[in-house]
Amino acid sequence: MERRGIQGLVVLGDTTLGNPDLTYVVGRNLARGGIYFKRAACKPLLITSILDVLTARGGRVENVRTFTDLGFEKLLVEHGQTEAYPRLILEVLTQLGVAGKVILAGRNDLAWGTYLLDKLRSLGVRISCESSPTILEVARATKSVSELHDIRGVGSKTSKVVSKVLDELKALKRRRGHLMLGGRVATIKSVKRLISTQLAIEGLTAPEGTIFAIGPSSADPHNSGIPGAEIRERKLIVFDIFPQCESGYWFDLTRTFVIGRADKRAKVLFDAVQDAQDSAIAILKNGLSGQSAMALACDVIEKYGFRTVRDVYAGKAREISSGFIHSLGHGVGLTIGERPYLSFQNQDPLKTGNVVTVEPGVYLPKFGGVRIEDTVHITGRACENLSKARKEFELN
Amino acid sequence: MERRGIQGLVVLGDTTLGNPDLTYVVGRNLARGGIYFKRAACKPLLITSILDVLTARGGRVENVRTFTDLGFEKLLVEHGQTEAYPRLILEVLTQLGVAGKVILAGRNDLAWGTYLLDKLRSLGVRISCESSPTILEVARATKSVSELHDIRGVGSKTSKVVSKVLDELKALKRRRGHLMLGGRVATIKSVKRLISTQLAIEGLTAPEGTIFAIGPSSADPHNSGIPGAEIRERKLIVFDIFPQCESGYWFDLTRTFVIGRADKRAKVLFDAVQDAQDSAIAILKNGLSGQSAMALACDVIEKYGFRTVRDVYAGKAREISSGFIHSLGHGVGLTIGERPYLSFQNQDPLKTGNVVTVEPGVYLPKFGGVRIEDTVHITGRACENLSKARKEFELN
Asked: Which terminus of chain A faces fewer neighbouring Cβ atoms within 10 Å, N or C?
């Protein structure tokens, strides 16, 4: 904070859910959120609802107080419901002796955020903005030992879910090229039920759903699968799963396969993507830039004759709809997409403690797509692959 | 918008997850979010990533364009990564002819929000704040037919999960006052696995977890249950479940019960809470204030000899730690806690189309608590109870 000239950091929100910065500084899930205060070089203070105070005391902040402790009810009477909140922030900042630059952080509605900002400034608080990467983005990009422990845990559970689902699919009977499940032709919907049951058994949730897309719809990286679509042999299936564990950490893993035998075109896609992923994983380590990893993946995929987004960055195309149409990877932690990025836009060196996905993909509209994704931990000499699920292309 | 003197509304975010305002205006889940523009009295425009554009087109906005369509890459080159985003907003507002008051909305990091706001203002955009309730809070409080359809759906599935879990618990063998599950003494952890499996079967997720608290820990309304705690007979168990369905709508339901027979003290708690809930549900309808419903619930609970938060609002106590220590209810929709509130602070009349929880509770520290909660839909003449799970106090 000192280096950035910030004297006070205030992280707030009405819940820690979907509020990774607040979850990060608090170290616990608080249903009603709270306000975290940090004066540079001092211990932090956390204000929570009386209903969350016991939970909060189990987290990272020693000094946890309730809104009532700090006289919030009195401010409500004096200033009304809208103004009581900024007044409370002002009082605490004054008590902490913060008169310099203050950063407000935490995910909040911007309409309300505009009010809060304008009001605090009118009360004399010197609120500054930060350009990205913010102080908390930087902190969150490098995982601590306890964060890595949680991510390893969700990684091992996610890998187990994927392996079990693949085993179940392999064990299903086939009739005239279709997979049969519970006496009926298996559909995306029925397979998703298998997946969510396995997630539940492992104690994971998937708040953003799961992608299980077959055939042409697998060529759209964000198509999560048409519920009624039938599971057939010889079609490309992209299975991309991104669950979250109870403490808030995510994981990201994708496998692409066909039931039965794949045709030649699908095999070329698979080989290109697998080759790109292996090549990228082989060079990832502390000090390498996200850009370099991305460039290498593009090199490999172009060698197989497919286009890549390099054409867009090089100004050769306005956009591309076929080939490797997205970036190589992104950070994973308390969100499913954060710093650092493995993309042409990221020239910064990766650091030990970063956790990133490595997920090249090649997509051919109207035919299908292949994406293979692992989540890895960057270390000084290499990277540690946290995904344990096998990469089996033809399920026989 | 006209009534509030707003000419432009911009709702933005890097994902719709945990961003209810953006989910609401878009009508779909977009993994990479987007920017929604609305000029008063005109049709809206939505900008999304190329990866989300097909999904977005299935939602509420007809006019969906990609960042590339609007020349974002050019702005990136001209203004750099940080400034390109506000520049894009400025360009679109200019194209739409918006020169008057603009509201920024959607959940976003405030550190970045501060930058966005200051930059847009420096570029001449007249950004205003809204006092709560914001235009989107007001819109979201009254559910449309299609929203009610989704909430009814998640309500019926949630009720099914609760009924099935109660059936399973009843069917378990008991040994020396303990419930047995899979040959071992059942714990909170093993019961939570039953719950999450049932949730998965119904296609629901519980991103905020589930409360299953036994004995003294049930006296803390936000204690979600100590994983290792054993399930015993004759102890109060608070089972509070708040799942979300795929389209983003939540539901909230609580049952309190004992395995076997309850003692007299626990029965009095249950009767007080059930009586308070029945009384409140009987009067809830369009036009009644949230405050009146809360006051009635307090009347009933006080009649049974317990304290209520009325003492705090009447200035008789600074805080209370026993009795009815929270409010009667809150709205439910794309969040698990929103307008309208059934509390002393809400003097506004409820409206047809509101969906609220009715959840009185009485808590005795070191002993336990009882909370009974249904989610109801306010109509012109009464309220429709969307919770179908039975209220059985003694599981025998």
From this structure: C
Nearest CA distance, A209 vs chain B (angstrom) = 7
Q: What does the alpha-carbon distance between residue B387 and residue B159 come to, in Å, rounded to a whole number?
A: 6
The sign of the dihedral angle between the CA atoms of A225, A231, A235, A240 is positive
- Which option is the CATH number for A142-395: 3.50.90.10, 3.40.1710.10, 3.90.230.10, 3.40.50.80? 3.90.230.10
Q: Pick the residue from chain A with its C-alpha nearest to B211.
A: A31
> How far apart (Å, rounded) are the C-alpha atoms in residues A80 and A242?
43
- What's this model's pTM, rounded to 2 decimal places? 0.85
Evaluate whether B137 touches A14 at the Cβ level (below 8 Å): no
A51 and B326 in contact by Cβ < 8 A?
yes
Mean pLDDT of residues grouped by 10 in chain A (396 residues)? 91 92 95 95 95 91 96 93 95 96 96 96 94 88 96 98 97 95 94 92 88 96 91 97 94 97 96 98 98 98 97 89 96 95 96 98 97 98 95 94
- CATH no. for B8-139: 3.40.350.10
Alpha-carbon Rg for chain A in angstroms? 24
Give the gap in angstroms from C-alpha B222 to the nearest C-alpha of chain A: 6
- Best probe of the B interface among A109, A247, A291, A325, by most B CBs < 10 A, is A109
User: What is the chain B residue with the closest CA to A222?
Assistant: B51
